[in-house]
Request: fold
Amino acid sequence: MRRNVNYWVVILTAYFISAGNLVAQSKFTIITAADMQNINDSTSANYAGLGTLVTQVKNTKSNVFFVFGGGSIGPSALSTFDQGSHIIDILNSIEPDVMGVTKREFSYFEDELSLRAYEAAFPVVASNIYDTRINNQLDELSTNTLIRKRGISLGFISILHPRVIDEYLLTHVSITPPVNAIKEQALQLRQQGADVILMHYSYPFEFIDQLISERIIDVAFLSNSRLSKTNYSTINKNPNIITLNRPGVAAVTTFRIDNGIHLIASEYKDISKLKALSEIEQQITGYKFRLDRLLNVEIGEWKSNFSTLREQVRTQENSFGNFIADTMQEFSHADIALLNGGSIRGDVSYKQGQKIYRRTIATELPFPSLLKTIRVTGNDFIKALEVTLSEIEYVKGAFPHVAGVKVNIDSSRAPGERVIDVTINGKPLVPDKLYSLSTTNFLANGGDGLDVFKYAEDITPKELTPPLISDLVTQAIIDKRTISLKLDGRLTNFANNK
Amino acid sequence: MRLVQNTLSTFTLAQFSVIGLFIFIMTMTFLRLADVKNALSTLTTQSVPAINQASKLTSEVQNLVTLTAQLSQSQSKSFQRLVSQQIKTSLLSLNSPAFKLETNDKFLFIQLNALSQEIEELNNLIAYRMRIEDEFDAAIEQLLNLILSTSVAFEHHPILPEKRNNAANLFLQVAQIRQQTRIHKLRLLEETIEYEISQVRNGKGKGNNIEQIRELEKIEQMLLGDNGLVNKKIEVLRVTGRARGRGNFVRNLVEDLARNIEIQTDKISIQTLNEGKEATRLVEEHIQLALISAFIAILISFAFIYYLYRRFVIRLIKLTNQVEKAHEVEPKLLDGNDEIARLGQTFSEYFEKVQSQEKALLELSLSDPLTGIPNRRAFEDYLTKSIDQSRRFSWPLSVIMIDVDYFKKYNDHYGHNQGDECLRKVAAALNSTVKRSTDLCARFGGEEFVVLLPHTEEESAQMIAERLRNAIETLAVPHEKSQISPFVTVSLGVTVCHFTNETICSSKSIIETADKALYEAKSKGRNQYVFTDFIKS
Reply:
């Protein structure tokens, strides 16, 4: 009898163990993080902490997929110098299984992204994009990827919104319609044996819910640290959507496969609080050190209080914006200078007496914008102003900072009718007269909706290399040493008086 | 004195103003030339050398860009050493005093410093990369040989075909490690190798002895251990990527530097251009000024010449003309109040004097200016003398009065000039007919002539009268308006005075008597002579 019992115990134990194994095999965990572009900002970009998290989760769970949602190659001070190489290097140390591409990956344009993908230890995926020069996927990028762990294969897709082309002025790529791309890639992945289809995106498309309920995709991952809650809450209903909508957060989500993919647990961790993995910490420290060596050079001193807070530079006259525009005009001797608020990225406040370092300018103006001078009619300039002022309420980067002009507006009016009057060099604007206008190459090529500039005559002097705006500003500060900034009412919004 | 001051002062003023203008232009030219000289001097001693220097700097920096690119791509140690040495040289020269740009030296210096450090670190990284690449190459060679010998060992053993296959597969996978360029593919490869090894191990049965198991473990360790080939290769790939990243970084730094230098250069260029433009503008301005001044000077000179002309030359010419014509008209006083007017005045006065002297002279003279024969005065003088002489010697004295017939009509018809000519001819003819030296033919006045014949009797006198009449007729001077002849004729009146104690003829009475005879001749039809005895008064 005892022998029989022993026998049964063995068989049952074996069964339960194997069953447990089976059960264990149908669970998987996804770690997601994204938008960590500035290694000096430990609240949002604690890669070392992320490394710790990944190690921890991999030690406690099985079938762990570490998916990085991109948005990190730029813009940042160090990336100005190495176009995001350091981010890839750091990511290589924490080895995500895959990285999706969002619009910030294009901060240094398509070819640099290809180089970064080549350097990466993991596949870089963009599913609805192709290079118009070769009519194929961008070099080194993948359209989709299948990640195999012990028993589970995860198919990964990453989708871009078509407006990335305008926002980043991409000339060599084309975006295919998202839904078609998703369906096509998902089908391919299923045919290759994917158990789960994870779709990554950064723009709150409306069709996600539907795709999930139709089981075209199983899990969706939205990474957009700028997404305001109001914009999104109406859409996010489905539990299978992982959302990272503020910086410095990583999500650890566990699902089980049981006639469909079902959410078991979801945890949002504050990465900044996590203990740093020493190896990665060292790497990051090394980069920080090199960056400091480069950027901690003192170049001047602020003689005024001012701020470059995002809200402020995108909705009203800003003394730093004035300074940049003035510098542009001084260099080019154009009638007008125009800069978009979205170029100013510091999002900080400064006090009088604070020293200015190269780092300051590298942080405030991290984009490699070149100075370009064009000729436009007075009419075109007003049109341009209207375009840039049309989305003040949405705190958009197009908001104009000017020099050489005085503009009165009323933002309470409908978009397209907000300019009241414009004075250029003390005289009222003449609609048919041609004026010289200095701006960034981004805006001159039609960026931020400024189509009206696209076909304007380029009068940038050919014998000189166009300088970077950031270089001009740095040089101006070096020359003047102490910088007083002021608001002089060059852009007055009458809506504020109402 | 006032007159003298006037001309002198005007002349002086005009002269000085021209000279003054000249001096002004020369001074301005001199000053402007000095300005241009300064501008050019600045250009040659500062601006152009600065641009030169900046462009040298730029090309040196460009060189650095190329060198750093080469450094990143170094595949061999010797090449790396070579390039690294060249970079050191280049950095040294960039830091040399020859390349000091005026402004923001310190900033450039700091940039160069940071750059040097980065390049050094890049160098080290590349050296490290090459070292681990070498280590990897050596390790993989070793392993491949080991696998080969192991599988050979397997081959010589009676083993299952699957095992041999597994070994072959393993060999292939290991070889693939060398080829892999993507880390995540290496991870997949790692899993495959793990699987293959387990297959080789689990293919138990006869043939696997302890030694072979140990061999397999060794291989597994060499492949999959922490220091195994896979991880080594991953490290190589990471470091290669990092080196590339750093290379980009350095390249961007150098380009950053180049850009900053270029902005400086551009500033200098623009400044120089502006200086050049300014100098050109000054020169143009000056040329304009000079042209205008010259033009004004020319105008003033012309005005001056014109003034001289009007004030001096014209008036002198007028004066000269007047002097030349002075015998015809009253000399007009020259307008003006100065020396030339005085000159004109003096001339006038002199001229009047001359005229009166001429007149006096004329009056003193004994010749008739028109005909050249003796004049009335000469006749009267001679008559008086002849009367005296005749009285003394009681000679007869004859006088013939001659008048040209219809002379007024002749003058009216043929004009006064021809009238004069006619008189001349008449006088010449009369004179040549009177041959005796004691006889005198004179012009009595107008168209009247008189012939005095001392010691001549009545018959001779009449004969001579007839000769005289004939001589004129013979002249055949046409006279359309003569009522008696187609030619000029004369009428003559002859008289003789016998001087006795009782009879004394005065000049007056002789002339009167001759005149009467002439009158009679005229009444009798002209072109004839009439003799009348002398009538005692």
